[in-house]
Amino acid sequence: MNDIAHNLTQVRDKISAAAARCGRDRREVTLLAVSKTKPASAIEEAIAAGQRAFGENYVQEGVEKVRYFREAGQSDLQWHFIGPLQSNKSRQVAEHFDWCHTVDRLRIASRLSEQRPKDLPPLNVLIQVNISDEESKSGIAPQEVDALAAQVAELPGLRLRGLMAIPAPESDYERQFAVARQMAVAFARLKERYATVDTLSLGMSDDMEAAIAAGSTMVRIGTAIFGARDYTKR
Ligand SMILES: *Cc1c(COP(=O)(O)O)cnc(C)c1O
């Protein structure tokens, strides 16, 4: 087994163990492999090990990978855009990705909807919530979710699937859980109102257990699968 296949097995085992500990069905939690900065060859190894959902942060890099794998005939992959999105890059996301996790204003949502090619299914979107209230991070306040969700749900090119958050780094499990719980409550409220809502994208390498215990349905893991990132080449 190569490193990536081995790492994937370990991450999957961790997800299963975390789900089992809180009595959840393992199948409720999707693993999103975050492949930003990693070459196509690394993604190929993950595909060979059974991984199908990949997350990318940078529009240009992500689009190149989507194209590469489509041209290679690998049509069963799911591409998730998880980085900050500027309006001038929205078309690229609308045309190439299957999901966008970082919708945090109507302007971006409207553009994505208009720019989504008519021959593709609606773009799956998550509303990003700034749960730790950090000034530097993107996302809307939890009390703004209802209003934005109502607007997003009306857009024909989009399918509202749920919420996403990147909580501030926190090593204490109880505090991780408390923040994750707030997201789970907001998610449950939204789910009651919209039949399309089924996804809470929450949990990274260091807070995955707490996120799963709180109700996350999608964890985003990069380094633990692909190894440390090298940013010097960017
Ligand atoms: C990079 C990134 C991840 C993965 O982070 P790792 O620490 O490498 O596991 C998850 N979510 C988002 C939004 C990211 O940008």
UniProtKB/TrEMBL annotation:
Quote the function comment for this protein: Pyridoxal 5'-phosphate (PLP)-binding protein, which is involved in PLP homeostasis.
Q: What is the designated name of this protein?
A: Pyridoxal phosphate homeostasis protein
- List cofactor names only: pyridoxal 5'-phosphate
Quaternary structure note = Monomer.
Q: Which UniProt keywords apply?
A: Pyridoxal phosphate
Say which domain of life the source belongs to: Bacteria
Give the UniProt family note. Belongs to the pyridoxal phosphate-binding protein YggS/PROSC family.
Q: Which Pfam families match?
A: Ala_racemase_N
Q: Where is the signal peptide?
A: none
Instruction: Check the record and name the SUPFAM superfamilies matching this protein.
Output: PLP-binding barrel
Q: Where is the Alanine racemase N-terminal domain?
A: 7-229
Q: Which InterPro entries match?
A: Ala_racemase_N (IPR001608), PLP-binding_barrel (IPR029066), PyrdxlP_homeostasis (IPR011078)
Origin organism is Pluralibacter gergoviae (Enterobacter gergoviae)
Q: Name one GO molecular function term.
A: pyridoxal phosphate binding
Where, per the database record, does this protein carry N6-(pyridoxal phosphate)lysine?
A: 36
